Backbone:
């Protein structure tokens, strides 16, 4: 099985040129000497969950965040890491492939070798399976040569998604000990990074010296929080999909007879759909988060689309493009409830043939109403994280069919006078996952790989590598690390009036922020998108010339840089301290006391009110 | 409906840069003076059909081919076209959109305006509908500004495919007369160019002064003959699809659990599938032409794929990519026969619900064997050219299902010992049709637009614009024109032992040549493609840097340049004439006679034997 991993292969002209591209490093990581500055202890964003998290992660919760600075940075407390003994580092691809993953390996390899030529980077073959079975491949220049800046995870492969059970966790520890690893780097999304945090905690508890480090790599773009602005692969996926969506828009406008319903891969959150809509301006996009917030039923959504088709027909437009995130089906309340019942019956071991007869009356009624193809898909076994098999459920076909039925009814009734409604359905997912990564993803992943090395050199455990201020050019990027446990939240479900169930702490996927700037931008334009066909074609992903350096719109409009601001705050506090030293004038001291008193009062009030809010 | 045509629109950074790209002209078209040299009268490639064609096209068959040469070309008979009165030219998009179509309009516009600023180019809105209804838009610099080097046909739109009935032909003539057009340029594939030839003939017969000119533009790449090396759009479609196929290959190799079955748009011939296979090296491609030549049944094909899956599983490979041209279904003998019966019943007005009960016993048995989804698709009304609705028939799903059933059987029986077979199906068509055209398609279309002008200036009617020697750089391209009727063939069907039915002369789609070099290249590599996963990713379509100037592999390996050779032959004959002039030595004359006698004998024998062959 592993005989083909890491072998050199025939590359096309474009691929060859890509292997020659050398991503830039931000100033803080240039040269062989890097300083690390520790900030305050990181706390969970959800204060209400902090206790549960700190209880579950006694060794790794509450560690400080870290900033990596250049050697010459004028920061008194920053520590220069001067010892670089030969190390052994393992790296593993977990979860679904995301474009750019190979560059994390490359970046880490370069950083390791730059600091000590005797260090070794060991890749696990076939993902977590390889980790448990100790199937390895030593990463060398030769292995890397045809995988630099290339898509897929085929240099090392990936299989299973999780390292979760006690047996798996112990297996991973045994491998790390047997291979004498100084660090284990886990490349993946929310699930894999939760696993990384758990491994780190278990290793610390068991005094296993291997440090565990997570890297945010997932095409879904749903690993997003105060420390992580975006994930590796998201930009590429959105660019490849936007190109195709735009082509469909041009096609729809040229042929003037079809509605294209396009479902987009991206798991439960709608980040991919939002970004693609901002890139290509389709007529409609139905975000799962909007549907969930407004509790829209499948009939509400159908009606919305039908009204849009009708409004367009009145302007003599009988074509259009509608985007649907694959997670939509789980955001529609009644379909979600139906899926929950089905998954519950799966859990009880009820066979697929018998599930429909054991549904509750209302669920059964809904189930029977749905077309046969979708019934079959809803009955599929849930994924390992208990979510539905989103890539297999053709929500776009369901909606197209419901819209067609309704439009035919309106046509017959005479309330709709346009042309017969014609839909063609598509699912865009797999065709983007293996794409050549964009320059942004190449750069971001390569820098993250370097950061992993410095996390290990600083002796940190249970951290995720972070690069922030990403919307600025690479020379303004900030590199750091944050404890994964501080990115965790705890889910609560009410079960009856006084019973609340508490979930395990985990890095949960972030939904699209309906108060965020990216969503606001979409809302501002939605009516012109709907009626005016202001389609925009970002074009195929370019590696040279204009457009090659573009970044996700949703990244650029958001006002982020949390890590930068945390640092800035620290600087202000230091400045106050240095001005108000014993011996300063009474006036200065009084002014400082009065203003700091008002600042702390304001912040206390703000913190207590936000703690009272329930978590989403 | 037409209010939005030709309006300026918001362009992305890549689109904007594309509007600034200025295609190069070959030397023969540079400057304002062009010479035209006439070759011999063009004859139909199928000598047996020549009589029928010449009978159907008395005014336009047998015209000479034309070469356009630079002013300074040393060709005694070439005529300089020196008069360039103000002209009025109409242009219309017919048939399905193909990337690059807009550049034909732009090239023609530039040529027209370069020769006389008072000339006008008039675009018909909404395709043939607009032609008949005289809905027009005058092409101006402003109209063109945001459509240069852009995909789609949305500058003018397109609707119906054909101009075929007497009413339509007369309507088109009335429009041309009312608008006082000196020429009508028809942009399209085999069907539209057949229509163009018919219009030209009718116009000549009716002494309508409008010259009709065809341009070979179709994504299918199936308008191919001795005069036409490839069509505008084919390169782009293959590049966009190959990128996606390659991404799927990388994805399959990374995940190691799926077989991707990918159906490709391209109508009945398999040119797109062949080119994409040469670009991206998938594990298998099933060409319709191979299936037809070997008379493979659906079960033969299923078995072939199953054996391949099994051979791969023995090498521990449980993933793969299989390409299927959309035309495959019509190449499988029993499915074709079934479709013919169904279309026959449609023709008799039998309703869809009643068709299955009126099938012959064997057709009915096959029909009942097929899964319900495909039955429904086979029952769809045929297209206007009597072929099945190929884009709607999910042959890839049918094959995936049959393969799954067979692999499960083998697994149960113990003859197959690999992992459970998992297929995911895709149809790649619409998402490529609206793509930004490749540099090659931009250049080719733009030059064809210029050639159209010179055809009109030379007063030619019923010609197709040709550009040959395309595999060489633009400065080696040859420009010319050939009568469309000489590209026609006549189909014959035997109906019983002595009755043969003869079709109307038409430009028929060219199949993949199973004796050609492109197919040979595929065959040479097919076993390594199948087993060794030597996937190759041509990458997303690039407009700058390496790869931007690449051309279709199938174009480059074929040893074409028919027009160039015809010219070369003419030069040899002239040379002989100039050497063997009255007054030359007896020896020279004798040598010339003896060698020409043997040449003519050889050619006579070759011609008579090829005339005896039946047409494909």
Residues:
């Amino acid at each position: 099985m592993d005989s083909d991993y890491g072998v050199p292969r025939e590359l096309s002209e474009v691929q060859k040129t890509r292997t020659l591209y050398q991503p830039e490093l931000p100033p803080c990581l240039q040269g062989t000497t890097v300083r690390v500055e520790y900030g305050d202890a990181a706390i969970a964003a959800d204060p209400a969950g902090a206790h549960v998290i700190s209880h579950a992660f006694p060794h790794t919760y509450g560690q400080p965040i870290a900033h990596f600075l250049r050697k010459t940075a004028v920061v008194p407390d920053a520590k220069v890491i001067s010892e670089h003994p030969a190390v052994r580092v393992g790296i593993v691809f977990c979860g679904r492939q995301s474009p750019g993953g190979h560059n994390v390996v490359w970046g880490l390899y370069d950083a390791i070798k730059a600091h000590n030529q005797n260090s070794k980077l060991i890749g696990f073959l076939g993902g977590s399976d390889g980790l448990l079975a100790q199937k390895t491949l030593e990463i060398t220049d030769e292995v890397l040569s045809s995988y630099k800046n290339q898509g897929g995870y085929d240099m090392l492969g990936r299989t299973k998604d999780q390292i979760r059970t006690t047996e798996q966790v112990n297996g991973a520890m045994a491998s790390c000990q047997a291979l004498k690893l100084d660090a284990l780097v886990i490349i993946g999304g929310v699930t894999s990074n939760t696993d990384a945090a758990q491994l780190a905690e278990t290793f610390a508890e068991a005094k296993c010296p291997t440090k565990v480090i997570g890297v945010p790599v997932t095409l879904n773009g749903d690993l997003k929080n105060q420390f992580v602005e975006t994930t590796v692969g998201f930009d590429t996926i959105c660019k490849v999909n936007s190109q195709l969506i735009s082509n469909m828009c041009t096609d729809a406008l040229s042929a003037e007879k079809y509605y294209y319903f396009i479902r987009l891969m991206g798991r439960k959150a709608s980040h991919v759909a939002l970004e693609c809509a901002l890139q290509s301006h389709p007529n409609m996009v139905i975000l799962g988060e909007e549907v969930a917030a407004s509790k829209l039923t499948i009939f509400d959504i159908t009606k919305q689309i039908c009204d849009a088709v009708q409004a367009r027909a009145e302007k003599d437009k009988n074509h259009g493009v509608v985007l649907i995130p694959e997670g939509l089906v789980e955001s529609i309340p009644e379909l979600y409830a139906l899926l929950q019942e089905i998954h519950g019956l799966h859990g009880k071991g009820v066979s697929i043939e018998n599930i429909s007869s054991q549904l509750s009356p209302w669920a059964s009624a809904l189930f029977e109403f749905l077309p046969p193809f979708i019934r079959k898909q809803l009955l599929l076994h849930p994924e390992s994280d208990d979510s539905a098999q989103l890539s297999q459920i053709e929500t776009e076909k369901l909606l197209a069919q419901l819209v067609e039925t309704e439009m035919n009814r309106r046509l017959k009734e005479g309330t709709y006078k346009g042309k017969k409604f014609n839909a063609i359905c598509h699912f865009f997912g797999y065709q983007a996952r293996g794409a050549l990564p964009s320059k942004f993803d190449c750069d971001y992943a390569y820098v993250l790989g370097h950061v992993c090395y410095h996390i290990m050199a600083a002796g940190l455990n249970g951290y995720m590598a972070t690069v922030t201020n990403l919307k600025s050019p690479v020379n303004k990027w900030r590199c750091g690390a944050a404890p994964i446990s501080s990115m965790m939240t705890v889910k609560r479900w009410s079960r009856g009036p006084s019973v609340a169930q508490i979930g395990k702490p985990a890095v949960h996927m972030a939904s699209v922020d309906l108060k965020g700037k990216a969503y606001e931008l979409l809302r501002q334009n939605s009516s012109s998108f709907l009626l005016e066909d202001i389609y925009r074609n970002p074009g195929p992903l370019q590696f040279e010339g204009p457009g090659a350096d573009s970044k996700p719109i949703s990244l650029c409009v958001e006002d982020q840089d949390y890590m930068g601001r945390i640092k800035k705050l620290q600087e202000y506090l230091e400045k106050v301290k240095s001005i108000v030293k014993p011996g300063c004038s009474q006036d200065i001291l009084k002014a400082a006391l009065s203003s700091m008193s008002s600042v702390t009062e304001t912040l206390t009030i703000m913190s207590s009110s936000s703690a009272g809010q329930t978590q989403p």
In short: The two ends of chain B are 43 Å apart (CA to CA).
